[in-house]
Structure prediction request, 231 residues.
Amino acid sequence: MAQAAEIRAFVTGAARPMFDLLAPQFERTTGHKLITTSALPPQLVAKVEAGEPFDVIVLSYDVEALIKKGLLDPSSRTVLGQIGIGVAIHTGSPKPDFSTVEKFKKMLLDAKSFATSGEGSSGRYVDSLVERLGIADQVRPKIKSGGPGASAKMLSNGEVDFVVSGLPPLLGSPNIEWLGLLPPEINNFLVFSAGLSTRAKEPEAGRALLRHLASPEAMAVYKAKGLDPAP
Prediction:
């Protein structure tokens, strides 16, 4: 076994439930210790751009942008899977019809309030979508959001009519029913990916973590947590 190392990992909130299932096995089998910081993607990217030390980052979008900035090793890009954007309701609530673009627009316009991930990857997409659909002024005041896990908590507690987001952040919370994905013409598939810092203090241990995150065992965890294989 190589000398045990402390690996600093930045992990987006949407990926944290999956990461937390995989981390203990990695620590047991390698002897390495993980020091994990979790936040929304913009906050993690700000830490990276500010030069805060880290070894591995896991984001709910493609790390290619950080590679182009010279912040991640190009050879380390590791795709974990992808999610589409869909709708979930509080269990037992009336099921809205969002089977077409017009019905999706009507659902948003009729809602008293709904939740998104806010500055998370899916939340930023929903914000751009309502702008594209021409209903931003009517809809944005209805949107509630917060930090990692906030949308699931609000829906679970019945504080909002529904959530528009990816599935993984909602799993494990009570009283939530997933209804399915948005119509294909307005959906967006978000890639979850990881990479190694070009300034990693523990590059070999970091690469071992990336291999663990891309293992068949890890892929089974992702599937169980609502992450689909990326093409």
User: Anything to note?
Assistant: The CA atoms of residues 46 and 75 lie 22 Å apart. The first strand starts at residue 6 and ends at 12.
